[in-house]
Amino acid sequence: EQRHRHREFLLTGLMPEQIHRRKRADAAADGRAQFTIGTAGAWNVVAVKDDVTQVGTVVVENVVTRALALPAPLDSLTWTEIAAISRAGLAAQNFSIGDSKQITLSSGEVVIAEIIGFDHDDIADGSVATYGRTKAGITFQTRKVLNSPRRFNGSNVIWSGSEMRLTTLPSIAEMLPYDLQREIVQVKKYTANAFTAAAGSWEIETTIDQLFLLSRVEAINKSITHPGEGTQYEYYAAGRSVIKTDNGGTARPWWNRSPYNVSSLNGIMIITAAGAENYSGATSNANYIAFAFCV
């Protein structure tokens, strides 16, 4: 693992009063270097290993001591390191859409989480202060569906009050490794709630979620979408397939959180095994889960 990590860092001041200020540090065994910066402002960071060099910029608003996480392949980093890069606003500089990391649930099931967006989701108001940003640096979604299908709810109901949101996804969150659980940040998700006949449109409700399902427009930006339910993630906007399989390779229909686009609630949207937009007329039907989360 250490062959992917950088061995030394050079920190150079970019502000006029710092232009000749330079600091050098060797990376520790965990792939991190620490600098004590006596002057606030923008600093250029150069990470070097053998003949490989990566460059980034860190803006320090106050005089602080900050640990710098080193760029490395996503799957070789811990969730703590990934979260540190994300919260520093450096995710898009160090990772790419589609990069992935393996997760083993406490049940023994193995899932692959892929990056589907950078700076896409709004941080919940109560988490902004501790997170340090208003946008989540990275949004992940599972590449494949979980092995067992689940119902959305026992009776037709919207996302906010569904069994899926209130019971099923929280139970899955508890099955995640603890080092990932503690790094997941709560975000705002926007979902059509009730159809207003006079306005001829759906009202949008905001929920605060850790694990969530994608809305229709976040996954497949086609005809049956509700304005206000977010925007398509970069992963899918680039033309990647929305077809998802189970671990055995069989394509499965997977839940969205959006209601069907009619004047009354009579189903929840799904993406079919063939990758088409459709809906499940009864939320008690069993379809598959490809959950998402942010760090």
Largest sheet: 4 strands, antiparallel
Question: Major sheet: order of its strands?
Answer: 2-1-4-5
The total beta strand count reads 20
SSE order in H/E notation? EEEEEEHHEEEHEEHHEEHHEEEEEEE
Overall pLDDT metric: 82
Task: State the separation between the terminal residues, measured CA to CA.
Answer: 22 Å
Class from secondary-structure proportions: mainly beta
Strand content: 35-45%
Which spans have pLDDT < 50 for at least 5 consecutive residues?
1-6, 13-20, 63-69
Radius of gyration from the CA trace?
21 Å
Helix amount:
10-25%
Multimeric state of these chains?
Answer: single chain
Number of helices: 7
* Envelope shape: elongated
Short description:
It contains 7 helices and 20 strands.
Descriptive overview:
14% of the residues lie in helices and 35% in strands. It is mainly beta and 295 residues long. The strands form seven sheets. The chain has a four-stranded antiparallel beta sheet with strand order 2-1-4-5, with no helix packed on it. Strands 7-8-10-20 form a four-stranded antiparallel beta sheet. It has a three-stranded antiparallel beta sheet with strand order 9-12-13, with no helix packed on it. β14 (244-245) and β15 (251-252) form a beta hairpin. The longest helix is centred in the middle third of the chain and has 11 residues, at 163-173. The chain is elongated. The chain starts with 7 loop residues before the first strand and ends with a strand. Residues 1-6, 13-20 and 63-69 have low confidence and may be disordered.
